[in-house]
Amino acid sequence: MKGIEKSFDRNQVLHGVDFTLKKGSIHALLGENGTGKTTLMNILGGVLPRDGGRVFIHGEEITITSPHMAAEQGIAFIHQELTLVNDMNIYENLFLGCEIKHGIVVGRKEMAKKAAEILSLMQVNLSPHTMVRDLNASYKQVVEIARALMKNARVIIMDEPTASLTDVEIEHIFTIMRSLKEKGVSFIFISHKLNEVIEICDAYTVMRDGRVVASGSIDNSGQEKISENDLAKHMVGKELSYDDLYVQRELGGVLLETKNLSRENEFHDINLTLHKGEILGVTGLLGDGRSELFATIFGCNPKYGGKILLNGKEVKIHSTRKAHRLGISYVPRNRKENGIVKDLSVSHNMSLPILEKLRNFLFISRKKERQSNEYYVNALNIKVSDINNSILSLSGGNQQKAVLAKALGSLPQIIILDNPTQGVDVGAKLEIYSILMELSKQGVSVVVLSSEAQEILRVCDRIYVMCEGEIRRELSRSEATEEKIMVLATGGTLSDETQTA
Ligand SMILES: Nc1ncnc2c1ncn2[C@@H]1O[C@H](COP(=O)(O)OP(=O)(O)OP(=O)(O)O)[C@@H](O)[C@H]1O
């Protein structure tokens, strides 16, 4: 891609971007939130028209004005939200819209055979007759890749492909990517997880404010391999350090407590405590029950067994409205489905939980609304050209910051954050952690749910590791390590437990 230009109204997003992808390589496209990565790839994938610049494949200029034309050129874009139909099987999904037909008869056997060939090319042991709803998240990604290959894709663009996958699932996808790379398929890998970039990518391009600021090979041909820190420095333009982030504090008494909290098939006999001003981490593998547990504490699931106590008194939290009234706020795991209201502006999304506070008699005070929103736009450094534009006009990471702002706006005494830094760049992650630390100093209790052990270890005072719906063990900050968390999360036992036993 050469000299790519793109503006949205008067906001110029791409300023003459050059991007080169080699055959059979996995190339990381990196940069802070809102820097133009998805926009650049939307242009390559024919989703958006460009204002200027040219695109070449094997040195030959090509025209792409629609996803269909991109597919004809062998370019496939796998978006963050997968587009499979759960109620169809794998081969039906692969051939959706391009079914093999003989007259009016659909060639089911042929389609299943072709699908089986593609899956075996990817060395995946899956029957093409498996229903998509029965697949786990990584196999769904696999089917998306298979669909790209079916269309003879030579270039596969993956936008944050590992955001909702477990470590084991991520390794599974990486193995498939490596084997396809050997066969000459190239990948563009957009990600904020720099450890994964170092592990899987051969080359990188870093963008800042719509321009390329660095590019090169990850391995550096025999010289020292580029580090996560080097990449982060290119992205934010300065050294990032987590050293001064965590501050030891005097915590208050127990604010929230659960006694044998249970929900069928989700979690059971949960006895936990949360202190005033504490940052509590809850971790495990995807499907360990933590999201369901805290969604219940926030009133999303009215039927539960056991007790929830606030300040030592039992409270029945059968609705989210009740949770709000008790001073609990919540950032849900899946931003697109549960975090944002797609039809509303950035401003109205942020104001939703605080409409009562913004009221002047019968009306919403636009002045109060603007003041509150401006405060959080600045505090969280949300990149937005006009706060009255649709929330969808924000980049993924900035949408996530807006969801956080929404949760903070109600000035809660407890804030529950499920996967709070999904899609958020390294610099912004540090800003968000610092905000959590500040809140805790002011006495707010914070619960961070995350499967990223690093995230949990950076900010949390205390950690619960969950496995298969139960709390496997509580770890203090000083004893917790990534290894211990992984052992417990996968159902293992620590050496001190075996000794006691
Ligand atoms: N449809 C649109 N209308 C208006 N502005 C848009 C639109 N799509 C993107 N933008 C703006 O373009 C800029 C770049 O967005 P883009 O999604 O490309 O960023 P990104 O680098 O992919 O960020 P992230 O890492 O957060 O996903 C952002 O400021 C965003 O607000």
From TrEMBL:
<dbReference type="GO" id="GO:0016887">
    <property type="term" value="F:ATP hydrolysis activity"/>
</dbReference>
<keyword id="KW-0813">Transport</keyword>
<dbReference type="InterPro" id="IPR003439">
    <property type="entry name" value="ABC_transporter-like_ATP-bd"/>
</dbReference>
<feature type="domain" description="ABC transporter">
    <location>
        <begin position="1"/>
        <end position="234"/>
    </location>
</feature>
<keyword id="KW-0677">Repeat</keyword>
<dbReference type="InterPro" id="IPR050107">
    <property type="entry name" value="ABC_carbohydrate_import_ATPase"/>
</dbReference>
<keyword id="KW-0547">Nucleotide-binding</keyword>
<dbReference type="GO" id="GO:0005524">
    <property type="term" value="F:ATP binding"/>
</dbReference>
<keyword id="KW-0472">Membrane</keyword>
<dbReference type="InterPro" id="IPR017871">
    <property type="entry name" value="ABC_transporter-like_CS"/>
</dbReference>
<feature type="domain" description="ABC transporter">
    <location>
        <begin position="240"/>
        <end position="493"/>
    </location>
</feature>
<keyword id="KW-1278">Translocase</keyword>
<keyword id="KW-0067">ATP-binding</keyword>
<dbReference type="Pfam" id="PF00005">
    <property type="entry name" value="ABC_tran"/>
</dbReference>
<protein>
    <submittedName>
        <fullName>Sugar ABC transporter ATP-binding protein</fullName>
    </submittedName>
</protein>
<keyword id="KW-0762">Sugar transport</keyword>
<keyword id="KW-1003">Cell membrane</keyword>
<dbReference type="InterPro" id="IPR003593">
    <property type="entry name" value="AAA+_ATPase"/>
</dbReference>
<dbReference type="InterPro" id="IPR027417">
    <property type="entry name" value="P-loop_NTPase"/>
</dbReference>
